[in-house]
């Protein structure tokens, strides 16, 4: 996959997407969003890929949507031109494979919102998070008003969105915005370790578990439980379920085939 603003590398079943606009702190312009959307679509159907990591490299994750580009836009331009950001985030969120954000340095505005579209977040001890859009006279338009309160609760999300203040990695861990904090030089390695563990599990079970959690958030509890029961039942038609339980009985490690 050849892109200009992102790099995509696939190794041992793990795809790593690296944001590649370092001179502007990986500011997300419309080209980044379009390329991210295309990469996510391709990776979702690539059978050689079992997990995806998204990173901005070792200095910064992303300092948000490209303000210089946005400054020139009117309402109609945003409605049409920034549509790919919504598509990119939704494709990552709904991908039937685990997506891990590996975050060094700033994850602000659209950068923070991109991490929220991932399933789990591994942060460097030097990471800083925030939704500073309010200081620009706008609101977080990349899912921040929806995904952040669902993740950390409405009260803390409102505080961050209304003030635009940044929080450090320790605070992000405390409020549940990130799953893990590690030394800055170990973020990608830790994300890969986590990805490898996900990949070693039954891929069908994992993708249905992800669907249950994501879809369940759009349902009331009763419907969510019904949806979960259907997915649970379906797994008993897979080879992985037979293998997983046989391996337990035979006291050995399962060898899942993702079927
Ligand atoms: N858009 C465009 N360019 C950006 C940018 C952004 N979001 N963030 C940084 N840059 C550019 C700077 O303009 C600068 O470029 P030049 O060298 O050409 O001047 C370069 O990246 C380095 O940035 P700084 O000199 O500002 O670096 P710093 O270390 O002094 O400050 C920072 C770092 C605190 C992150 C600061 O750059 C900053 O505040 N950035 C903007 C953060 C922000 O407001 N993000 C939200 C954007 S809105 C959004 O994301 C909308 C949405 O909901 C989708």
Ligands (ions, cofactors included): acetoacetyl-coenzyme A
Task: Tell me the radius of gyration.
Answer: 19 Å
- End-to-end separation: 26 Å
Order of helices and strands: EEHEHHHEEHEEHHEHEHHHH
Physical arrangement of strands within the biggest beta sheet: 1-2-3-4-6-9
Q: Kindly report the average pLDDT value.
A: 97
Question: What is the count of helical runs?
Answer: 12
Strand content: 5-15%
Q: What is the molecular shape?
A: globular
Structural class: alpha/beta
Q: What does this 3D model show about the protein?
A:
By secondary structure, the protein is α/β, with parallel strands linked by helices. The protein has 12 helices and 9 strands. The chain is 49% helix and 15% strand. The strands form 2 sheets. The protein has a 6-stranded mixed β-sheet, with helices on both faces. Helix 1 runs parallel beside helix 4, helix 5 crosses helix 6 and helix 6 crosses helix 7. It is globular, with a radius of gyration of 19 Å. It starts with 5 loop residues before the first strand and ends in a 10-residue tail after the last helix. Bound molecules: acetoacetyl-coenzyme A. The site of acetoacetyl-coenzyme A has 20 residues, from helix 2, strand 5 and helix 5.
């Amino acid at each position: 996959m050849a892109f200009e603003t992102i790099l995509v590398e696939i190794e041992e079943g793990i795809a790593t997407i690296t944001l590649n606009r370092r001179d502007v702190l990986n500011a997300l312009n419309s080209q980044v969003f379009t390329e991210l959307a295309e990469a996510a679509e391709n990776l979702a159907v690539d059978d050689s890929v079992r997990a995806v990591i998204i990173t901005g490299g070792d200095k910064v994750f992303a300092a948000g949507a490209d303000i210089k580009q946005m400054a020139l836009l009117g309402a109609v331009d945003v409605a049409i031109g920034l549509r790919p950001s919504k598509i990119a985030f939704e494709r990552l969120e709904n991908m039937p494979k685990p997506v891990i954000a590996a975050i060094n340095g700033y994850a602000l505005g659209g950068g923070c919102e991109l991490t929220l579209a991932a399933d789990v977040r591994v942060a460097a001890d030097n990471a800083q998070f925030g939704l500073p859009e309010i200081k620009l006279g706008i609101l977080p338009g990349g899912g921040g008003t929806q995904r952040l309160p669902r993740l950390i609760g409405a009260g803390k999300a409102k505080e961050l969105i209304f003030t635009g203040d940044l929080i450090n990695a320790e605070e992000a861990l405390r409020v549940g915005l990130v799953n893990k904090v590690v030394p800055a030089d170990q973020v990608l390695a830790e994300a890969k370790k986590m990805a490898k563990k996900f990949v070693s599990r039954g891929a069908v079970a994992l993708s249905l578990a992800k669907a249950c959690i994501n879809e369940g958030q759009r349902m009331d509890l009763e419907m969510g439980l019904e949806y979960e029961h259907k997915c649970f039942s379906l797994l008993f038609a897979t080879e992985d379920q037979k293998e997983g339980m046989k391996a337990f009985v035979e006291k050995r490690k399962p060898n899942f085939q993702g079927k």
